[in-house]
Structures are given as structure tokens and as C-alpha cells.
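Q: Here's a chain of 94 amino acids. Please give me its 3D structure as C-alpha cells.
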Amino acid sequence: MTHNAAFYFANLGADVARCVHAAKNCDESRYHESILRAHRTLEQLHKTKRYEAYEEALLMLRCLSLSKTTPETLSSFQSSLDSLIATFPMRLTI
């Protein structure tokens, strides 16, 4: 089954949300699993040839990496991420 870029971008958002949750709980094993999943999803997104979505996804992963430095930035990133991915369930058609 082939999915569109919005599907993969939303899934990447969920993967990143799991990373945030794991980072907040200091669960490095769970974080590592989630970041690997995020990179697999990123590969699928790249295959859709929607390069603008792919570049936004790369930015999302970079922001995750930078936000891990302090609990305040991680919470701020989580809030922004939640706002972004909350719009996708209404827009996806599977």
C-alpha cells in the first residue's frame, strides 16, 4: 500500500513525539528505538518525492536534537510539535 507525504509526515511527528516522551523520562533505550523508527519513516517520506515535506521533516529532527539540551526547551518543542501534528488526523485519507 502506498501512502502520501502527509501520512508519512504525520507518522514522523508521532515518532518524534515518542522520542520527546522518552527523553523526558530519561529512557535512552526507548529514545533510541523511537529515533530509529523516525529515520525509517523519514526514508519513506523521501520516497514520496515531496522534497519540501522531507526538508521540514529534517528540521523537525534537528529541533528534537537541539531541544534535548534542557527540560525547558524540550517542553517548548513538545508544545510546538503537538500543535503541528494535531492538524494531520483531520487531513489524512488512507
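Q: Can you summarize the key feature?
A: The CA atoms of residues 22 and 28 lie 7 Å apart.
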